[in-house]
Write a structure and sequence with these properties.
Helix 6 runs antiparallel to helix 7 and helix 10 crosses helix 12. By secondary structure, the chain is of the alpha/beta class. The protein has a 6-stranded mixed sheet, sandwiched between helices. The protein has 12 helices and 6 strands. The protein starts with 5 loop residues before the first helix and ends with a helix.
């Protein structure tokens, strides 16, 4: 995992915008403060959660998951909970954990640590979200200069791990480039959406060079992102064509020249 640029991606998120993220979880809380860095400072060499939020009555750990949870995940999540319990005892709040999953439906997991201890946490399924609808709504609002809500931006940032027809890397650069092109975003919501996308890139993008480039640009360290993006967009076009989208729709939604989409389509048909 590349070095976590916590000071760059989450420091400007205010409580009101963090509550938009909670809306997807179905949680209500007057307080919603991101405090992930505090656990990273406890032991930066240890696996740490993706996001930690201090809420009114609890401290909630949030993980992003693109595969079904198994025993190895239960054990890792249990460590997260134990570390947070140790670090945040001074707050006097219960510690809970939720997993955003694109691989399975919502459910409650019960993991028997031993005969006397059971670790319970919630999986929040994202499979019911329609990524095409999310992308189309964002593109429509951009084209018509309509304000995009914070929740819509958060869901758009999650598209690479929600989408079912391709790999994370097929969509992540498109999402990153779209976020970078959005102008006038409030500092807080920009920091939150960039931070979520940073976590997705750092956790799920396999190619090291691409991962480092995207993490840099999301952390406000400009890189050669566009040099890599063009080659990866061809893979995105292929997946959208396989999913039944017309070349015209792909070109319009993704703002890619129709001639380029047609070229990829011809290559796909000849294979």
């Amino acid at each position: 995992m590349s070095e976590f640029q916590e000071d760059m991606i989450f420091k400007n998120v205010n409580e009101e915008d963090t509550k938009l993220f909670l809306d997807i979880l179905g949680i209500k809380s007057n307080k919603a403060r991101i405090m992930t860095q505090e656990l990273r400072e406890l032991d930066p060499t240890t696996f740490v959660p993706d996001i930690i939020l201090e809420l009114d009555e609890e401290i909630r750990i949030i993980e992003l998951q693109s595969v079904k949870v198994h025993k190895v995940h239960h054990k890792r999540f249990h460590v997260y909970l134990a570390m947070a319990d140790l670090k945040f005892d001074k707050f006097g709040k219960k510690i809970t954990l939720s997993v955003f999953s694109t691989a399975e439906k919502s459910k409650k997991v019960r993991f028997n640590v031993n005969d006397d201890n059971v670790f319970i946490y919630d999986v929040i399924g994202l499979k019911n979200y329609d990524t095409r609808e999310i992308i189309n709504k964002i593109n429509y609002k951009i084209e018509n200069d309509i304000e995009i809500t914070g929740k819509e931006l958060i869901l758009f940032a999650l598209v690479p791990i929600i989408e079912k027809t391709g790999e994370v890397e097929d969509y992540v650069e498109y999402v990153v480039n779209t976020l970078l092109d959005l102008k006038g975003l409030a500092t807080s919501i920009k920091s939150l959406t960039y931070g979520i996308e940073w976590l997705i890139v750092d956790k799920f993008v396999v190619d090291e060079k691409t991962r480092n480039v995207l993490c840099d640009v999301l952390g406000d360290r400009m890189s050669l992102i566009h040099e890599y993006a063009r080659n990866k967009e061809d893979r995105l076009i292929r997946n959208l064509l396989r999913a039944g989208n017309s070349p015209q729709k792909i070109a319009k939604d993704a703002k890619i020249p129709l001639s380029r989409v047609k070229r990829v389509e011809r290559t796909l048909k000849s294979q």
